């Protein structure tokens, strides 16, 4: 358990949380794929590919090369999107899509850090239009997220600020300087080896549901390894009678099966188009 009482005569502290597969059980951006399709932002083919990408991410995570491919794909996908429409779609579907996949363990940690007097900061590679509403839902004090360039109210497809890898660590240090955080007494949580720079920046790094590479790093550096596996609706937690939820792995398998089917349909359609087969 965390120390719940913080000495307020000491410098301020914070807890920095990665979002995807750390606080929530899926990729935040990819989770809205169906909503973007229903809103007319993407076509059926893109929706199927997004579902398949979510499946791959759930099963195997994403190393640097995969993250770069995902960034390039999503940047091209959102080119021309109306920013206000994106915000409206996220706002309308936020509770239905995100609320059920928040890890109970993560929500409890956020509460404990707040009770200890620490700020809670979400640091995510996903886009600000998605991360900021999720941060508000979680009660985060601040959010660091990727920002796209916008012209005439639409995304250009170019990235203005990419919150990824070393850039996350830079953002943590900049916040520490501006907010007066003592990083040696701060906490950080992530599932991905790409976030090692952010974890190294604080005195209390934690690996959460780590990928294989991060698990090796955590073992070698003697970092605590946490297992989050109970997604639960926030309103159930706050009502005091949360119903038992399936473990995240079982949920991932269920979601993954549907996503894989969709992905295979998309892949088969590509092969037919490419090779002219019926």
UniProtKB/TrEMBL annotation:
Protein name: HAD-IB family hydrolase
Origin species: Streptomyces carminius
Gene3D superfamilies per UniProt: HAD superfamily/HAD-like, SG protein - dephosphorylation function
Name of one Pfam family that matches: HAD
Signal peptide location: none
Residues annotated as transmembrane: 248-268
Family: Belongs to the HAD-like hydrolase superfamily. SerB family.
One MF annotation (Gene Ontology) recorded for this entry: hydrolase activity
InterPro entries named in the record: HAD-like_SerB, HAD-like_sf, HAD_hydro_SerB1, HAD_sf
NCBIfam families: HAD-SF-IB, HAD-SF-IB-hyp1
Keywords, ordered alphabetically: Hydrolase, Magnesium, Membrane, Metal-binding, Transmembrane, Transmembrane helix
């Amino acid at each position: 358990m965390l120390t719940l009482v913080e000495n307020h005569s000491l410098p301020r502290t914070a807890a920095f949380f990665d979002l995807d597969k750390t606080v929530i059980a899926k990729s935040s951006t990819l989770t809205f794929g169906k909503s973007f399709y229903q809103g007319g932002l993407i076509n059926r083919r893109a929706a199927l590919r997004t579902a398949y990408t979510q499946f791959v991410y759930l099963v195997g995570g994403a190393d640097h090369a995969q993250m770069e491919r995902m960034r390039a794909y999503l940047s091209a996908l959102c080119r021309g999107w109306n920013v206000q429409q994106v915000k409206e779609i996220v706002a309308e579907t936020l509770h239905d899509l995100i609320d059920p996949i928040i890890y109970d363990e993560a929500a409890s940690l956020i509460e404990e850090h707040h009770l200890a007097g620490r700020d809670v900061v979400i640091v995510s590679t996903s886009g600000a239009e998605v991360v900021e509403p999720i941060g508000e839902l979680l009660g985060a004090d601040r959010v660091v997220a990727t920002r796209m360039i916008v012209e005439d109210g639409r995304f250009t497809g170019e990235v203005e600020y990419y919150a990824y890898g070393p850039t996350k660590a830079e953002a943590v240090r900049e916040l520490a300087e501006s907010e007066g955080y003592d990083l040696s007494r701060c906490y950080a949580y992530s599932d991905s080896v790409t976030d090692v720079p952010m974890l190294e920046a604080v005195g209390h790094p934690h690996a959460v549901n780590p990928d294989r590479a991060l698990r090796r790093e955590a073992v070698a550096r003697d970092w605590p390894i946490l297992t989050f596996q109970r997604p639960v609706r926030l309103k159930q937690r706050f009502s005091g009678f949360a119903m038992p939820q399936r473990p995240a792995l079982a949920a991932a398998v269920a979601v993954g099966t549907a996503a894989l089917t969709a992905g295979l349909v998309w892949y088969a359609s590509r092969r037919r188009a490419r090779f002219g087969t019926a």
